[in-house]
Amino acid sequence: MVLQTRTAAKAEVNEYIQRVLDTVIQRNPGESEFHQAVKEFMYSMTPVLERDPKYIQYNILERIVEPERMITFRVPWVDDQGRIQVNRGYRVQFNSAIGPYKGGIRFHPSVNAGIIKFLGFEQTFKNSLSGMPIGGGKGGSDFDPKGKSEGEVMRFVQSFMTELYKYIGPDEDVPAGDIGVGPREIGYMFGQYKRICGGHEAGVFTGKGLTYGGSLVRKEATGYGCVYFVEEMLKEKGMSLEGRTVVVSGSGNVAIYAMEKAMQLGAKVVACSDSNGYVYDPQGINLETVKQLKEVERRRIKDYVQEHPHAEYHEGCSGIWTIPCDIALPCATQNEISEESASILVKNGVIAVAEGANMPSTLEAIDIFLQNDVLFGPAKAANAGGVSVSALEMSQNSMRFNWTFEEVDAKLRQIMSNIYRNSMAAAEEYGYTGNLVVGANIAGFLKVADSMIAQGVV
Ligand code: NAP
User: Fold this and answer.
1) Which ligand 1 atom lies nearest to the CA of residue 180?
2) Cα 439 to ligand 1 centre (Å)
3) Where's the Glutamate/phenylalanine/leucine/valine/L-tryptophan dehydrogenase C-terminal domain (predicted)?
4) What's the CA-to-centroid distance between 357 and ligand 1, angstroms?
């Protein structure tokens, strides 16, 4: 009898999850990245729903996959030749159950509604996992800042903000940076917001410059946090980063500071990349050169070999995963590690993979890592350091007070350790010991779901 009841409950859970997945696909046609993010999440929900049917009763899954609001708008601007250009802007306000919407803005030609929704969905659980009182949001545009003049970037950003300002605020929605949006773009956004709204509402953006309300360690936070997460995973197995060979994809904000922290902890980083190709430097990547090329001069990573002729440059991105390494840190973009790349990493003896980027591993790649007992830190957990320090920036703005670098760094390290521990504990409690994908999804979900139930059908 007990067995029969249990089987019936399992069937109900599976049927419910499948129905929600079908609805997501039918309501959001062609949005493959969003479908992928929801699928990865849903498969972790089975043990939660089996244990507590209230989440089915309150239809939480169907509510949680539907953004509270999705804003799409025209962004017209004038280029240096006097031609009128038109881009599309987005902001998804995904879930505000535990706090104001919070999440970055991405400027990249690949940006579309599906990518913004996948990022906003992931952000909701990441923010919950961070332990900070922030909801999930994300935004962006298909504008490509690469190759544009300062004046073009500024005019575009001012036009983007002339629409977006209506929907954001320190207690409503607090954007930050992401791909293609760094301190320069955040500065222009803040300037335009201030001009329209008046006052000096510092808490409406994070990732601001240090001279006007930014937080120390925000620039470094996602990369450093990702490496602190790796440190936790290794510590559990009695290992450390000392002497390890590390491969990092990307050479943007997350990648640069992941490399810096890995080096500080004694690892040797031998490769990094951009969207054209990758450099392999068997003597160890020279980070000062990468910073100069990417942060200061906005040049391509292939120019690295001009300064370091013993290093190799290879066209194309996926080849970076064929370089033997102990630790792989994908820090560029979504779906950059395929099943094939994951298999090569495993064959070459990778010990740990931590996702600095959002959803850089395909579902098949994640399966390969888990089946082969690779220590795997999923994005929601491993790259939550950025948004965590953003929340610390919001706190400092409210207090009108700044913490020192050491204070913020210590808080970041503690937050990453808590995220690791909470994800491990949730995995163990629900019968998936050591599986941080399931653990992070469950730990992130419970707080959001319980808050939604407490707030009624809204
Ligand atoms: P970024 O500074 O703009 O750097 C992005 C890097 O990835 C660049 O090296 C870029 O190369 C490369 N890249 C971008 N699109 C690519 C593509 N389609 N194929 C291959 N390479 C590509 O951005 P970021 O802030 O470091 O963000 C990197 C990742 O981390 C993203 O997934 C983002 O969502 C995630 N993330 C960022 C933060 C944060 O605090 N910034 C926090 C959490 C997660 P090019 O220079 O050639 O474009």
Assistant:
1) 3
2) 25
3) 215-456
4) 7
Instruction: Name the catalytic one among 117, 138, 208, 294.
Output: 138
Residue located nearest, by CA, to atom 32 of ligand 1: 357
Question: Structure pTM?
Answer: 0.97
When the candidates are 1.10.3470, 2.40.440, 1.10.285, 3.40.50, the CATH number that belongs to 2-65 is 1.10.285
Q: Give me the DSSP letters along 18-62.
A: HHHHHHHHHHSTT-HHHHHHHHHHHTTTHHHHHH-THHHHTTHHH
The reply to whether 177 sits in an annotated binding site is yes
> Residue with the nearest Cα to atom 16 of ligand 1?
275
Tell me which of 3.40.50.2300, 3.20.20.30, 3.30.230.10, 3.40.50.720 is the CATH number of domain 219-377. Answer: 3.40.50.720
Q: Between β-strands 312-315 and 245-249, what pairing exists: parallel, antiparallel or unpaired?
A: unpaired
The answer to whether the CB of 438 falls within 8 A of the CB of 427 is yes
Class of residue 45 by CB neighbours under 10 A (exposed 0-12, middle 13-18, buried 19+): buried
358 marked as binding residue: no
Show the tokens assigned to 360. 């850089």
